[in-house]
Design brief:
heterodimer, A: about 270 residues, alpha/beta, three-stranded antiparallel β-sheet, 9 helices, B: about 180 residues, Rossmann fold, seven-stranded parallel β-sheet, two-stranded antiparallel ribbon, globular
């Protein structure tokens, strides 16, 4: 009984957030979103979702906090090294034939994927001729990405992944350690444009040759997944590449017949 | 041996250390090292007359199927009877987490779900199984004395009284009973 009430409250909260702040979570996968909202109740000391709704609608600063909470950035560098290895071996040789490149990293969060991709492009001699668009709905995450500071304690795991991903140098060449953090070489992201962009409400902004969007679609329901895939399809040039997360697929999506697998295991596809 | 049981739509199972011998249907979290080329589904397919697969995002839950949570992802049940995945932070140091599966199943399916918590070396699953009980699902805990590692069953028993505390043969009989009622 109480839980059906909670579902009503959740819908009202999402509707309210959309009307007030134009952030659209209405087509997110419900189970994990609800889990986060319920955790937010504890965090913000609210007895019910309705209470949270009232406070969020009246207080933009609280909404910024909540946004941080429900888009919790969990990321790592060279996550799923096989993906980056496949990019390096199967996609880069084709990208090399283009005089200039545009790459869209959708849902870039705190920038781990952006730096990973930039390092790969640097080592393959493509960085100079590439313009990256790194987009996210969370401005605070993107601010962290721009700073390029990551915890020192993660570097051992990242180094191992970097090597498995086919890295050709010492990973520590790319950063300077200070205290418990490391600062990545800013020249890596000199050609990165960070932009506030929502796969739920915004449209395509540029033609691209590669779209990498990993572990973002799992948070969307089918309708929103199809919307996002439509944007990627529209953005990609003829025979452009699309990379998804290791458990995401185009099967059963509205765009299944618009792409062919390049490396199926690593969820790399090519626009037909 | 069992009182009359309610009709069910899903059985959720959670196990950690020592849990490989006792699994039957349907959505399963087994704690494993975060290695994405898990061969669990392959291994169990050879032993079971069920369709066994590692869950993919938005998989429809089909009869006669067993879904494993992929290593490194939480597995959740949606109220349209599909499965979804998330890369949210670990819960109880675990991803996949049994709590996340059980709590989402409790929320989505209420009394139409049976949760089984098996052997394990941490506290994951106790709060999720409790949530299932509060939503009137059927709850089963492996008896600690029969568990290879009793920590997980004991953590659940400290929180609440499940419908059944059974050893592995007992759980097996219960599953057969549930299957029969389902058919």
């Amino acid at each position: 009984m109480s839980e059906r009430l909670q579902d009503i409250e959740l819908r009202l909260l999402l509707e309210g957030i959309f009307l007030r702040y134009s952030h659209d979570f209405r087509n997110y996968s419900k189970a994990s979103l609800k889990r986060r909202v319920l955790q937010a109740l504890t965090r913000f000391d609210c007895p019910s979702i309705s209470t949270l709704q009232e406070r969020v609608l009246r207080d933009p600063a609280l909404f910024a906090e909540l946004l941080q909470f429900i888009t919790i950035p969990v990321s790592e560098m060279f996550r799923d090294p096989g993906y980056f290895l496949a990019l390096r071996q199967q996609v880069v040789p084709i990208l090399r034939t283009y005089p200039s490149l545009k790459v869209w990293i959708a849902g870039c969060s705190t920038g781990e994927e952006v730096f990973s991709m930039a390092i790969l492009f640097q080592e393959e001699g493509l960085l100079e001729r590439t313009l990256f668009y790194a987009t996210d709905i969370n401005p605070r995450s993107m601010e962290k990405a721009r700073q390029g500071i990551f915890p020192l304690e993660r570097m051992r795991a990242y180094t191992a992944s970097y090597q498995k991903a086919g890295g050709t140098r010492a990973f520590s060449d790319y950063y300077t350690a200070a205290y418990d953090g490391v600062l990545f070489d800013k020249s890596l992201i000199a050609n990165v444009t960070f932009a506030d962009h929502s796969l739920a409400t915004d449209s395509v902004f540029s033609e691209t040759q590669l779209v990498s969007c990993r572990n973002v679609l799992i948070y969307f329901n089918k309708n929103l997944q199809n919307r996002a895939l439509g944007l990627f399809h529209e953005s990609l040039s003829h025979r452009g590449f699309l990379g998804l997360g290791s458990k995401e697929s185009l099967d059963f999506s509205a765009y299944a017949s618009h792409f062919e697998p390049v490396v199926k295991q690593e969820r790399l596809f090519r626009r037909l | 041996m069992f009182p009359p049981l309610k009709p069910l739509r899903l059985i959720v199972i959670g196990a950690s250390a020592g849990g490989l011998q006792v699994l039957l249907p349907l959505a399963v979290v087994l704690h494993l090292p975060d290695d994405r080329n898990s061969r669990l589904a392959e291994l169990f397919q050879q032993r079971l007359a069920l369709r066994v697969r590692e869950a993919e995002d938005k998989d429809a839950i089909l009869p006669g199927s067993l879904y494993f949570a992929p290593p490194g992802y939480h597995l959740l049940v949606e109220d349209d009877f599909t499965l979804s995945l998330s890369r949210d932070e670990p819960v109880q140091f675990s991803r996949p987490s049994i709590d996340v599966l059980f709590e989402s199943a409790a929320d989505a399916l209420g009394e139409q779900v049976c949760g089984i918590l098996l052997t394990g070396a941490n506290q994951d699953g106790a709060s999720g199984l409790h949530a299932l009980a509060q939503n009137r699902g059927i709850t089963v805990v492996q008896s600690p004395q029969s568990a290879e590692v009793p920590t997980m069953p004991e953590a659940a028993l400290k929180r609440f009284h499940p419908d059944f505390v059974l050893d592995v043969p007992g759980i097996h009989l219960l599953l057969i009973e549930l299957e029969r009622d389902h058919g």
